[in-house]
Design a protein that fits this description.
Helix content of chain A: over 70%
Structural class of chain B: alpha/beta
Oligomer: heterodimer
Number of helices of chain A: 11
Strand content of chain A: 5-15%
Strand order of the largest sheet of chain B: 6-7-8-3-9-10
Largest sheet of chain B: 6 strands, mixed
Radius of gyration of chain B: 19 Å
Number of domains of chain A: 2
Helix content of chain B: 25-40%
Chain lengths: 295, 249
């Protein structure tokens, strides 16, 4: 193998790519679609996991006090919470503060506070931060036994739900990717088979004059890999465009939702998608080339 | 000194060596049967020897086994029985990956030329060299000179359909000899050409033969064979029925 012969293979690969334009584009599109689905599912799973960890790390127990409890009594309860094992921090949120927080979250421009100044329906509450997410259910149980506590909330099941969603998404994603990936591989295989067919005269002559099987196969492999890589490039381009748009929109509207923006992680995904596209192309070519060239 | 030369040239080893080198093609009791619904015996117990530098015609009616013989020589097929040696190497025993390298030593010419219609004459000849991974600069040097040899240097950038049948066959010959083969195998090279052009093609083959290349030609062309006065091997129903030096059809 020398430089010239690699040039010949590359030239031949490009030539057949152009000659079978329609099939090439169709298989390229399939690769692009399958990798786009793969990439989206991948990003979604990563983001869901990111959200789950974030939620876990921010997990806290909200303790709502009975209405009958006076402010003084409420403030005196603080040491009792601090005594519970696993509690890292205890924060008192008065009902006035609670209303203000609500106001901020709903962006009510002071109207809610105005409307409810005399009849604040919110109870006083405590926010307990846990050392460890696993301890939260136990803390909640212990808190419920304390006098003056009306109810305890800690987002029961939320984290579990999110994690099971990620799990489901991962499985569903894998199934879809497998199906579309398979379609892509077979479309590439068909494209390559067509190219082989349209070049059977050339192949016959090449064999007669003493071309090695490796030399004859090379342009077809290159063509398959080229189709795969181009498809992957399209997929990565679309994915990046969509994702950055999505991130922009999220930061403008629902900015409390944490999203992954770490460029290193994204680049890693893109790199893997490109590798996978090339791999799909190589597999497709291999399927087509396996049976011929026996003479 | 003279005595020493005498001794060396008469040793058994040297005799054997000479035998191997001078013989280009040796066939020993070669048979070829095709198994289908009925068994077809294409070649039946063929033994023949072709020396280096010979010009041999293989003649016979259709179905006599000429094409099978050619296919065995280029190692497209292996005999069902018997042995074929080319330059002392057994063709049936060639390994799969050795076959391309064997074929680089032989040139093939066909009745239907087998040119690539979408490539120029230059590209058609260069195609052979590319297939055996010759560098670009060498191709640029070798193709024009070989096209000059067959008298087509000025047609280098033409496409096959712009040429006459005889010119196309000359391209095919140029393609066969561009790699300086030891042996040229031509299957009905003048089958599609008129007598005038056929003679032209034969003269080119003759000129190549004069440079030392062994040429084996299968043909139907009676006039040509009678005119050339070369060795003729006649086949009939898969057997050699005649083998004469300076023979006729």
């Amino acid at each position: 193998m020398n430089l010239s012969s690699i040039q010949y293979s590359l030239r031949d690969a490009l030539r057949s790519f152009r000659r079978n334009k329609f099939m090439s584009i169709a298989s390229m599109a399939t690769v692009a679609i399958s990798l786009l689905i793969l990439g989206s599912a991948w990003l979604l799973v990563l983001n869901a996991n990111f959200l789950a960890t974030k939620m876990e790390s921010e997990l806290e127990v909200n303790v709502y006090l009975l209405k009958e409890v006076t402010r003084e009594q409420a403030l005196n309860m603080k040491p009792e919470f601090e005594k519970i094992t696993g509690v890292a921090e205890v924060i008192f949120v008065s009902k006035e503060d609670g209303l203000k927080l609500l106001e901020d979250r709903m962006d009510g421009e002071g109207k809610i506070q105005e409307a409810m100044a005399d009849a604040n329906p919110l109870p006083d509450r405590y926010r307990l931060k846990a050392d460890n997410a696993d301890l939260v259910p136990q803390i909640a149980k212990d808190v419920e036994l304390i006098q003056g506590v009306e109810s305890v909330r800690y987002g029961q099941g939320m984290v579990e739900k999110l994690l099971s969603f990620t799990h489901w998404l991962r499985t569903a994603g894998l199934v879809v990717i497998f199906a579309v990936g398979l379609a892509a591989v077979f479309l590439i295989a068909t494209t390559i088979r067509l190219t082989v067919f349209s070049r059977r005269r050339e192949i016959g002559i090449m064999k007669l004059v003493g071309a090695t099987n490796g030399y004859i196969r090379r342009p077809f492999f290159l063509e398959g890999m080229l189709i795969g890589l181009t498809g992957a490039l399209i997929a990565v381009g679309c994915l990046h465009l969509f994702y950055s748009q999505l991130v922009k929109n999220i930061s403008l509207t629902v900015n409390f939702l944490p999203v992954l923006t770490d460029m290193n992680i994204l680049l890693n995904i893109y790199k893997n998608l490109l590798l996978m596209g090339t791999f799909l192309g190589a597999v497709g070519s291999a399927i087509s080339l396996r049976r011929f060239l026996k003479v | 000194m003279l005595v020493l030369y005498y001794i060396i040239s008469n040793t058994r080893y040297n005799q054997l060596y000479k035998d191997v080198v001078i013989k280009m093609i040796q066939m020993f009791n070669v048979s070829k049967t095709y198994e289908g619904d009925v068994l077809v015996k294409a070649l039946d117990d063929i033994s023949l020897h072709i020396k280096k530098g010979e010009f041999v015609f293989i003649v016979g009616p259709s179905g006599a086994g000429k094409s099978t013989l050619m296919r065995l020589m280029i190692r497209e097929e292996v005999p069902s029985k018997g042995q074929i040696m080319v330059e002392g190497r057994s063709l049936p025993r060639l390994r799969q990956r050795e076959i391309p390298h064997y074929r680089r030593k032989i040139g093939t010419v066909f009745q239907d030329f087998k040119l690539l219609m979408d490539r120029t004459i230059f590209e058609n000849v260069a195609f052979t060299l590319e297939a055996i991974e010759t560098s670009r600069s060498e191709i640029k040097a070798r193709v024009p000179s070989v096209l000059e040899l067959v008298g087509l240097k000025d047609k280098m950038s033409c496409y096959p359909h712009q040429l006459s049948g005889g010119q196309q066959q000359r391209v095919c010959i140029a393609r066969a000899i561009v790699n300086d083969p030891l042996l040229i195998i031509a299957d009905e090279p003048t089958g599609n050409l008129d007598p005038e052009t056929s003679r032209e093609i034969m003269n080119i083959l003759l000129a190549i033969n004069k440079r030392g290349t062994t040429i084996v030609t299968a043909t139907h062309d009676k006039e040509m064979v009678d005119l050339m006065k070369k060795r003729v091997i006649a086949l009939s129903s898969g057997r050699i029925v005649r083998d004469e030096e300076r023979g006729g059809y």
